[in-house]
Amino acid sequence: MPRKPLEPIFVSADKPVPHVRRPPRRRRPRASQWAWRIGIAGSLAAASLVTAANMSVPFRANLRAHGELQEMRQAVAQKEREQAALQQQLQLLKTDQGREIEARKQNLIRPGETPLHVEGERIPPGD
Question: Which of 16, 52, 64, 114 gives a 20 to 30 Å CA spacing to 121?
Answer without folding.
Answer: 114
